[in-house]
Design goal:
Strand order of the largest sheet: 14-13-20-12-21-22-11-23-24-25
Oligomer: single chain
Largest sheet: 10 strands, mixed
Distance between the termini: 48 Å
Strand content: 15-25%
CATH superfamily of the largest domain: P-loop containing nucleotide triphosphate hydrolases
Number of helices: 17
Helix content: 25-40%
Radius of gyration: 29 Å
CATH class of the largest domain: Alpha Beta
Shape: elongated
CATH architecture of the largest domain: 3-Layer(aba) Sandwich
């Protein structure tokens, strides 16, 4: 096979040429077919390059990614001819062809390649040009290709300079959504892409399933040498997160407020809010933050009572007095509120519940409020000395807030209150730096497509204004079709793991070509499809086995657990 030349200069050695543009299929500036040369092959996701010389002598470099590959017998007319061809009775040739989706033209003269032009596999600098990596001033390692070449995202599309936010979709337990989110965080903190900013950049991680994210600061003892080497190919060191603080809710009914975790015994702080913080901070609406509440009229009572609670008198150590009644537990606070909204004194009832509010509406509010006692009694209290020691702080580089033992109502309360604190802290700082990343799974629960809630409004604020404030959302969900559209639409980086076939066909995944939608239903754990604005075609991205522990056994905390490597290294990882 001869060299490929433009104006007499050799641009690629013969070994790189893998085929030629075929003339039996239309070639367009968007896609074209390449006949694969004998002894060569092209597979999905391969990056290719070629040149076309225009009539005036200017050379246009065309790059693309293989999006489909086919093989067929040329000369066969019927399906049964394959047996005759295999027996040598009927002459035919096997041909392979690859469909290439164009990614880049240099210069931007959008002309189709001409049939017969040689096509080569793009490697090194040519691959960087094909995938726009060469133009990224600040490249963040986002994983590896199947050939273990580094994949990057443009940090300016993530850190708020030009765009922000990441959205990740996939089946729970299979798509490894949370694991990939922590990999991105690890890359942000250790790759050098953030420069000196990395030291002060913070991450808030909500742990919603199991206790997998409680060991981010422990090295993974199950990390095999081949997986460790992949970090080097991605340009990352091997290790755990250097600065982590873990918060967990207190054990139910435990007066010593020990954190409710089983696998990690050290370095975990229990958290709760005092009654004074609950009243002065206007936290009551976060107890009414699901779709059922949004459809009810008692939300009017919620906001009236919230306003009245701001007038509560502090009594020390987080306690409050409401209309002269001292409260030290959340149950006592609920009883005091109930007594005022149902007071026989019309003036008191109107002041607390609101004017012209029907008795049925007030009773519905009371029933819902009393129903919250069992969920949040241990999270809102004033019966512990020095409650300031149990405040969720963002002092370390990574703050993990564990929610896995809480019910859905308590989870919504904690997520809403902690998110609001993080958002307000950024607003009050008046500066976008240092960056604050927020990792939140199950977005469909906290920001559903229909209805409104205090948590959803905060998440919308983060999605729409967070870029200018320096607060970046890395959100995940099983089904993007059930998440508020504006949150998904404001995410510059879209990541897809293993999808359900019905979900893959929805409009929210319109950025995926048809073939990639089909592939998303069979992706293995640790493999994602990554889409970013600068690249017109999503790319396949793999990430190495976590170098930080994802469970107690990997951290060496459980001596009875087997330390052998499972057959599937991603089995059991958080989704």
């Amino acid at each position: 096979m001869e060299d490929v030349s433009v104006d007499g200069s050799t641009v690629a050695p013969p070994s790189e040429v893998v085929g030629r543009v075929i003339g039996t299929e239309d070639a367009t500036p968007l896609e074209f077919w390449v006949g694969v040369a004998p002894g060569c092959y092209l597979q999905l996701d391969d990056v290719v390059a070629l040149e076309r010389v225009l009539p005036e002598g200017e050379a246009v470099r065309i790059y693309g990614i293989v999006s489909q590959v086919r093989a067929r017998h040329e000369g066969a007319r019927f399906d049964s001819d394959v047996f005759l061809i295999a027996d040598g009775v009927l002459p035919a040739e096997v041909s392979e062809a690859a469909l290439v989706a164009a990614t880049r033209f240099e210069p931007e003269t959008f002309v189709p390649p001409r049939p017969g032009q040689p096509v080569r596999r793009a490697v090194g600098a040519e691959r960087d040009q094909a995938l726009f990596f060469d133009g990224m001033r600040r490249r963040l390692p986002a994983g590896l290709s199947r050939d273990d070449d580094p994949q990057y995202v443009n940090l300016e599309l993530l850190d708020g300079n030009r765009a922000a936010h990441v959205n990740n979709s996939g089946i729970s337990g299979v798509a490894t959504k949370t694991t990939y989110a922590t990999f991105l965080l690890y890359s942000l903190f250790t790759s050098g892409a953030l420069g000196a900013e990395a030291t002060n950049t913070k991450a808030l991680v909500f742990n919603v399933k199991g206790e997998d994210l409680l060991f981010l600061d422990h090295p993974n003892v199950d990390l095999e040498p081949d997986q460790a080497a992949r970090y080097g190919r991605a340009g990352l060191p091997v290790g755990a997160f250097a600065s982590v603080e873990v918060f967990a809710p207190p054990r139910r009914g435990d007066p010593s407020v020990r954190p409710d975790v089983a696998s990690r015994t050290e370095g975990v702080t229990s958290f709760f809010w005092t009654l004074e913080e609950f009243c002065r901070g206007e936290l009551l609406p976060f107890l009414f933050a699901d779709a059922e509440d949004d459809r009810q009229q008692y939300t009017m009572v919620v906001f009236n009572v919230t306003a009245r609670l701001t007038e509560a008198t502090p009594t020390g150590d987080g306690g409050v007095s409401i209309e002269g009644e001292a409260c030290r537990t959340f149950g006592q606070l609920v009883d005091a509120v109930t007594a005022n909204v149902l007071s026989d004194d019309a003036h008191t009832a109107d002041r607390w519940a609101g004017r012209a509010i029907g008795g049925g509406t007030v009773n519905a509010f009371v029933r819902r409020l009393h129903g919250a006692v069992s969920h949040v009694a241990d999270l809102v209290r004033a019966d512990v000395a020095r409650p300031d020691r149990h405040t969720v702080r963002f002092e370390q580089q990574v703050t993990v807030v564990d929610l896995h033992n809480l019910g859905d109502r308590a989870k919504r309360f904690v997520v809403g209150v902690v998110l609001r604190k993080a958002f307000r802290d950024k607003e009050l700082s008046g500066q976008s730096r240092p960056l604050q990343f927020v990792v939140l799974d199950e977005l469909n629960k906290y920001a559903p497509r229909e209805g409104s809630s205090p948590i959803k409004e905060i998440l919308l604020d983060v999605a729409e204004r967070g870029r200018s404030l320096g607060i970046i959302l890395i959100g995940a969900q099983q089904t993007a079709s059930e998440v508020e559209r504006r949150i998904v639409a404001n995410s510059a980086i879209r990541v897809v793991g293993r999808l359900d076939a019905a979900e893959a066909g929805r409009g929210e995944y319109g950025f995926l070509p048809v073939v990639q939608r089909q592939r998303s239903t069979i992706l293995k754990p640790g493999t994602m499809l990554l889409n970013q604005p600068e690249l017109p075609v999503p790319v396949l991205c793999q990430f190495p086995f976590p170098a930080w522990a994802t469970r107690a056994a990997e951290a060496g905390a459980n001596p009875k657990a087997s330390t052998s490597t499972p057959a599937d290294p991603f089995s059991g990882l958080p989704s």
